[in-house]
TrEMBL record:
Chief location category: membrane
Cross-referenced Pfam families: Sugar_tr
Source organism (scientific name): Cephalotrichum gorgonifer
Composition bias type Polar residues, residue spans: 494-505
GO CC term (a single one): membrane
Record InterPro entries: MFS_dom (IPR020846), MFS_sugar_transport-like (IPR005828), MFS_Sugar_Transporters (IPR050360), MFS_trans_sf (IPR036259), Sugar/inositol_transpt (IPR003663), Sugar_transporter_CS (IPR005829)
SUPFAM superfamilies, A to Z: MFS general substrate transporter
Residue ranges crossing the lipid bilayer per the database entry: 12-40, 60-83, 90-108, 114-138, 150-172, 184-205, 268-289, 309-330, 337-360, 372-397, 409-433, 439-459
Membrane topology of the entry: Multi-pass membrane protein
Sequence segments annotated as region (Disordered): 486-505
GO MF term (any one): carbohydrate:proton symporter activity
Protein name: Related to quinate transport protein
Keywords of the record: Membrane, Transmembrane, Transmembrane helix, Transport
Gene3D superfamilies with a match to the protein in the record: MFS general substrate transporter like domains
Amino acid sequence: MAQFQLSQGDLRAYYLGVLVCLGGFLFGYDTGVVGGSITLPSYKNSFGFADSSKSTATKVASLTVGLQQCGSFVGCFLMIPLGRYIGRRLSMQLCSAIFVIGAGIQTADTHDLASFYAGRIIAGLGVGGASVLVPLYASEMSPKHLRGRVGSGYQFLFTWGIFLSSWVNYAVNKHVSPATPRQWQIPISVQIIPGALLGLGMFTVPESARWLAKQDRRDEAWKALTWIRGSDGPEVQEEMDEINATIKAEKEISRGSLRVELKSKVTLYRLGLSFAIMLAQVCTGANALAYFSPQFFALVVGDGTESLLVTGIFGAVKIVSCGLFILFLSERIGRRFAFTGGALGMAACLLCVAIVHKLLPPPGHGQVTGSGIAVVALIYLAIAIYNISWGPLGWIYIAEVLSPRTRDIGVSIALGTQWTFNIVWSVATPYMIAKIGWATFLMFAIVDVCSAIFSWFCVRETMGKSLEDMEKEFNSESATLTAQIEQDDRANGSAVSSSYDAGKA
């Protein structure tokens, strides 16, 4: 039980993690709630397409999902200049405000689909921006022994967002009259609460210490670091010295020019690694399973109420597996092992699903067979494996491996990839299910094998290492210079350390 005896610094780190990872909850809830809300009779009546053809309803659904994801794609790149120049905390509050405005527009009963679509785009800007800022802020502020656990909270709250959205939709569909617009307004409006909590909660935590140090606001950086660590002892002083030495080294190497740094092979490799990890994460098949789980389960158990039942259990499996990972595995198994093993495990499960479905297809008419039950169990196992590997770790790893000067750019590129392929899979998956059926699972299994090979040969271990230690891990030129700067500071008496003593006095 020693691991649960928390220091003040650990408690503050967990609080910060839960707060910023509300961005993941927003992503999950917004993803899950809208699909159900726009199918409600009250929504169709409000926006005037209750008597329209099925193709009209399909078009509305496609635009509703696609426009939000397009807004998120733009939002993640807008955060490069904003997060760099006004800071992580203020940018997060701005994303919160944008999301709340977008959710408010969606909630209004305007009887105009164009305004609802505009709300989707605006809310997407907030979600996309937060998706970049959460891993940045969490990685920069979390202590190295908790960084994986804190950063994994994004995926955990994402799964909770999807899970709760399905129950909110179910409740209003059952208990609120379809004759009133409140039936669809309630589930849409609920997301305003966590959106507002994210922005207001950021007033209770400091700005990123590493961002402040990059702006030469060293006294503020020291206060922020001592707050999140719950201490101003020698270990914290040493960490602050490391942060400042690394930032100084990178500035000297790149001569203050980001363009010079981007020409470095090591920098390009780290950017490519961050990009590849997020590309692999979004192409494992887990996102497609999440977005279209009823259709996938209909493939293996046939149409009927059974597919809805197993879809509900599917959401619970994601929450439980991700929670177990955060509590017991996040700081025990290495990133390289988790990525490689996770991809191989998912590949094995999905390959078996494809084979069984091809040889013993479901009879349909809601009839469940032994092979159908086995296939459902394999899909549950695949998504559980995803949520103890690629799901939670992808979000934190993309920030861990990047240098201080390229962290915001690299995370934005990685998350831009994630949003791009979310759009691709949201469009392509329904057609894949309809046209190739069982081969959909085979395709994702092949992708997972490729991801495992990539992880084994390319992923560098980051567990238990500070962000400054990554310079040594990647044999960065700044690592040698950083060591020299730290040695000179210790020999001559660091100006930064003097400011610590002044602060404590």
